[in-house]
Design a protein that fits this description.
It is a single chain. The protein is of the alpha/beta class. The protein folds into two domains: 123 residues, 2-Layer Sandwich (Nucleotidyltransferase, domain 5); 180 residues, ATPase, nucleotide binding domain (Nucleotidyltransferase, domain 5). The longest helix has 24 residues.
């Protein structure tokens, strides 16, 4: 079955066509600069479909379209076929993700017009974390703000965590429900997830993707009092400051790209070195906290761009975890970027690198939804 996977953002559209029998990629691409070089999402989808047909794809053979939807609120614990009721709930959740859900919906409406006979499925970043208990998702503010305004921890990167969990279970030859992992999704956006019994028990991103680890351009954890202090000092555009100008970029003054920051640190740039230290320290701190929260873990898994390719970053993080029994094999770690165990034989917890594949999870979910 041919499934088109769409990740529709505010200024870009990424797509993959996957033949789910054998899980083969037939085509992939990205249309960028929506709103400038490309007028709108309709035009972007038209360009994407032209690329597909030019490469020999027959659009009428596409049976389903899987849409990445960032926020499902508390309404969705799994992927669902998009109908009028689902659309209303996604639109409602747009209040919680105003930068993401409206763009996701634009991709849906455009693709629905061009592929009216295909079944369209919403796959939510937040769904995997709906197993969090109240003590993990509630904030220490008056309870009315949760019941009335739904202010709580939601967590993101759910499709990535699901792929890593399922792949780890497959490698070890055991049910996912028997796995106890701490997974570090480290890319431009970063988060950590504690998985206990195959379910998300806690995760570092919160009400928005801003909370938690230091990221490429996001600040991660910051005292709310510091935010109100900056407001009192006349600082404006705080949303942009914390989401787009902070993180590795803000601390280093160099780049949001870890490889560029590492290169500057190697030249003696102290701000770059400090940015790396803060990044690694926060990851280490979250791993340690989650190790205690779920009573240990059989493995720590690194995934996404930095997690998969940043051998030096993995080494720094894991060196500080020796107290938990973490011991890396230097040769294995330096050969990262591929699926493998990078800890020493016999060390516990084990440490793995498992490259993520969110598009494949979306394609699998789409097939399950339309064949149920």
């Amino acid at each position: 079955m041919q499934i088109l996977v769409l990740n529709s953002g505010s200024s870009s559209l990424k797509y993959q066509l996957i033949e789910t029998t054998g899980e083969r990629r037939l085509a992939k691409g990205e249309i960028s600069k929506i709103g400038s070089a490309v007028k709108n999402h309709d035009e972007a989808l038209t360009a994407a479909f032209k690329n597909l047909t030019d490469s020999g794809v027959r659009l009428e053979e596409i049976a389903g379209v899987g849409h990445r939807v960032v926020h499902g609120g508390e309404e969705f614990q799994q992927s669902v076929i998009i109908d009028d009721a689902v659309l209303r709930l996604i639109e409602k959740a747009s209040e919680l993700a105003p930068l993401h859900n409206p763009a996701n919906l634009k991709g849906y409406y455009a693709s629905k017009a061009l592929l009216p006979k295909a079944r369209h499925v919403a796959v939510f970043d937040t769904a995997f974390h709906q197993t969090l208990a109240p003590h993990a998702y509630l904030y220490g503010i008056p309870y009315d703000y949760y019941t009335r305004d739904k202010v709580r921890r939601y967590g993101f990167h759910g499709t990535s965590y699901r792929y890593v969990l399922e792949r780890y279970a497959q490698i070890l030859g055991k049910p996912a429900s028997e796995c106890k992992l701490i997974v570090c999704h480290l890319g431009n956006g970063c988060s950590v997830c504690a998985i206990d019994g195959g379910k998300s028990a806690d995760t570092s991103m919160g009400f928005t993707p801003l909370e938690g680890l230091l990221m490429g351009t996001r600040s991660g954890d910051i005292d709310a009092g510091a935010v109100t202090y900056l407001m009192g000092r006349g600082v404006t555009h705080l949303d942009s400051l914390l989401n787009e100008k902070s993180g590795l970029l803000g601390l280093s003054g160099v780049s949001n790209d870890m490889q560029a920051v590492l290169a500057e640190a190697a030249k003696g740039n102290q701000r770059a070195e400090i940015a790396i230290q803060v990044f690694c320290y926060r990851v280490t701190k979250y791993i340690g906290a989650y190790f205690a929260a779920i009573g240990g873990a059989e493995a720590i898994v690194f995934t996404a761009g930095i997690g998969e390719h940043g051998a030096a970053i993995r080494a720094r993080i894991c060196a500080a975890l020796a107290v938990l029994g973490v011991v890396l094999d230097p040769a294995r770690n330096s050969a990262g970027g591929k699926e493998q165990k990078i800890s020493s034989d016999g060390a516990s917890p084990a440490v793995w690198v498992i490259p993520t594949d969110e598009e494949l999870v979306i394609a699998r979910d789409t097939v399950r939804a339309i064949t149920a």
